[in-house]
Specification:
Oligomer: single chain
Shape: globular
CATH class of the largest domain: Alpha Beta
Largest sheet: 8 strands, mixed
Number of domains: 3
CATH superfamily of the largest domain: ATP-grasp fold, B domain
CATH architecture of the largest domain: 2-Layer Sandwich
Number of helices: 9
Number of strands: 19
Order of helices and strands: EHEHEHEHHEHEEEEEEEEEEEEHEEHH
Radius of gyration: 22 Å
């Protein structure tokens, strides 16, 4: 038995993903069951036959039977003792915890933009002053949520922007959670800061770097997208996230350096099915920004399905179904294409690229 697990509270968002995985399985004459965590907890003995499990967001109930552990990884192991979890909880937890992601990548020599993780407000302030602009990232987040573009003033003061808002920013010695009062945003440690990687246009004006996303399936990059924003009016617009209005477009080919880096990051983080975000600008990069997988806390954005160029070769949920359905004694489906297949399947029309934009 193969199961896609999620929570009832997440159904409005992940329901279409579950349906697409099931549809892809049905097209192959197979069945993948959909299961809510709430249902699984009511029938504990029925899940011994589950051999493979794919996890989408769910909430662990606040009240559990005494024999069940409260943390998600051990809970899943208890409920589905014989199941191979294709998107294992470990890599998902690391991807959700941006500090853990950065530390692991940096420890293994994977290039990232200049990064500082500190509890010291003075050290954090010096980092912003040195780079003039930096991004303060929430320790646990996805989709650009919690990102603040920081700007150092002439007298050492900090200003911060998020889409639609600008604040004076104070870095505190201690505290729990960010607080906004009288236009001042107070941020407690830990401070996770990265240099704002930008390109330079005509007249020295800053413009966004290229944000690439590699969709990794079983250790190989299945396809690429990039996120773009039409106009840059203020610093917060450098947060190039679909959550804040950026658009996807598919990238036909990338450099060997970018492809190698994406595979390396996936290997270091243990990502079997997921997305690796890279950034590059001119001769800067590529660098790894973060990694995302489907799992308990969040899921990979499927907004690229609305792009007019979307085709079956970009169907991540079909690839997930193939991995789930692959016989144990055969190599898993990798969801990759040869160069000849890309040339055959890619829409035959001119490729549009803004003047001066660096190639991937």
């Amino acid at each position: 038995m193969i199961v896609v697990l999620s929570g009832k509270s997440a159904a409005p968002w992940v329901g279409p993903i579950v349906a697409d995985i099931q549809h892809a399985a049905a097209a192959r004459g197979a069945e993948i069951a959909a299961l809510h965590i709430e249902t699984a907890l009511r029938a504990l003995r029925e899940w011994q036959s589950v051999t493979r499990l794919y996890v989408l967001p769910f909430d662990v109930p606040t009240t559990l039977p005494d024999e069940l552990p409260p943390d998600a990884p051990r809970l899943l192991a208890k409920l589905f003792p014989r199941a191979e979890i294709v998107n294992a909880p470990g890599p998902h937890e690391v991807g959700w915890d941006k500090l853990a992601t950065a530390r692991r990548l940096l420890d293994r020599g994977v290039p990232m933009p200049e990064t500082l993780i500190t509890d010291d407000p003075s050290e954090a302030l010096d980092f912003v002053r040195h780079h003039e602009q930096a991004i303060l990232k929430a320790p646990r987040s996805c989709g650009g949520q919690g990102h603040i573009v920081l700007l150092a003033g002439e007298h050492g003061e900090l200003a911060g922007e998020v889409p639609g808002r600008r604040y004076a920013v104070e870095l505190e010695l201690a505290g729990v959670g960010r607080r906004l009062q009288h236009g001042v945003l107070s941020c407690p440690p830990p401070f996770y800061l990265q240099r704002l990687v930008t390109d330079v246009g005509r007249g020295g004006a800053l413009r966004p770097a290229q944000i690439l996303r590699a969709y990794v399936v079983d250790g190989q990059v299945a396809f690429w997208t990039e996120r773009v924003r039409g106009k840059i009016r203020r610093p917060a617009d450098f947060i190039i996230s679909a959550t804040f209005g950026a658009q996807y477009r598919f990238v036909r080919a990338v450099s060997d350096a970018a492809a190698t880096l994406a595979r390396r990051a996936a290997e270091v983080l243990g990502v079997r099915v997921g997305a690796i975000d890279l950034i590059r600008a001119g001769d800067q990069g590529p660098f790894v920004l973060e990694a995302d997988t489907d799992g308990q806390h969040s899921y990979i954005d499927r907004g690229f399905k609305a792009v007019p160029d979307y085709r079956d070769i970009f169907d991540l949920d079909r690839m997930i179904a193939d991995v789930l359905l692959a016989p144990v004694d055969e190599p898993r489906a990798r969801g990759t294409m040869t160069r000849e297949e890309r040339e055959r399947d890619w829409p035959q029309r001119p490729r549009l690229r803004p003047r001066g934009r660096p190639r991937a």
